[in-house]
Design brief:
mainly alpha, about 0% strand, globular
């Protein structure tokens, strides 16, 4: 009888906060399980096409002319870690934009989640946890393709994955805070058109920011992607980044922490009466 009572008490005990965060991650994983076939091909095809076209195609011209300050790297070697960080940014921004807006405005799945014991911070952390897994899938695909093409060694590819993944999660947090504060979806295309795309082009992914006009270079240096690109490239090849590592990491952590904190506030405002 006593053992039955203890079992009933354990069964009735509410799940812990980490368990509730994991439930949010699991719910997203169950949804993705039904649609993963639609994304797996592009996940590997995009790095293959970028490295083949930009690295093996355009890169041969860059290498032949000897233009650009690439620290002694071939252009495709210079390109691969930067593209990995840029792809992580795009995946992270995607997970923090339309996915979040749909959960609040269109499908209202977040309202349903909060009708369970899950709290707002747990919902946000679970969302970021799943976004981190999706970003890791993207960076992992870039690493595999880079190794298969002979651009990076397995050790170099794995070294670049960590800073690139942190970059993607930081963007998820910042974009989540932005998206959850919107009243309509018009701000989402504007975010990509005037934020994500310019960062993709001018944050050192395709060429050193030192080649930009003097008045643009400082703007590129304060974008979170530039710090992710610098870290990914430095960790892959064991070179020194433009700034001390602690400053690059500090910027990414600051974006992650501030984005998460702001997401807590906006989710609470939008989703709770």
């Amino acid at each position: 009888m006593a053992s039955t009572v203890v079992h009933d008490q354990v069964a009735a005990r509410p799940p812990s906060a980490p368990s509730r965060v994991w439930r949010v991650v699991e719910a997203n994983a169950r949804v993705y399980k039904r649609v993963w076939r639609g994304s797996v091909a592009s996940t590997f095809l995009i790095p293959l096409l970028y490295l083949a076209a930009m690295g093996m195609g355009l890169g041969t011209l860059v290498d032949d002319t000897g233009t650009g300050d690439l620290d002694g790297l071939r252009y495709i070697e210079f390109l691969a870690p930067g593209l990995m960080a840029a792809a992580a940014m795009q995946t992270g921004a995607g997970e923090g934009s339309f996915v979040v807006f749909a959960g609040i405005k269109w499908r209202r799945t977040y309202h349903a989640i909060l009708s369970t014991p899950v709290t707002v911070p747990e919902l946000v952390l679970g969302h970021l946890g799943w976004a981190g897994i999706r970003v890791l899938m993207t960076t992992g695909a870039f690493a595999v393709v880079s190794v298969v093409l002979g651009v990076l060694s397995p050790v170099q590819a794995l070294a670049a994955v960590l800073p690139a993944t942190v970059t993607g999660i930081a963007f998820t947090a910042g974009v989540t805070a932005y998206s959850s504060n919107l009243d309509d979806d018009q701000g989402l295309p504007a975010l990509f058109r005037f934020g994500i795309v310019p960062m993709f082009l001018f944050s050192g992914t395709f060429f050193p920011v030192s080649q930009l006009p003097d008045w643009i270079e400082p703007l590129a240096a304060v974008t979170p992607l530039w710090h992710g690109v610098e870290l990914s490239r430095a960790w892959a090849f064991g070179t020194a980044p433009a700034w001390p590592v602690v400053l690059h990491v500090g910027v990414l952590v600051l974006v992650l922490v501030m984005g998460t904190f702001l997401a807590f506030r906006t989710f609470a405002t939008k989703l709770q009466p």
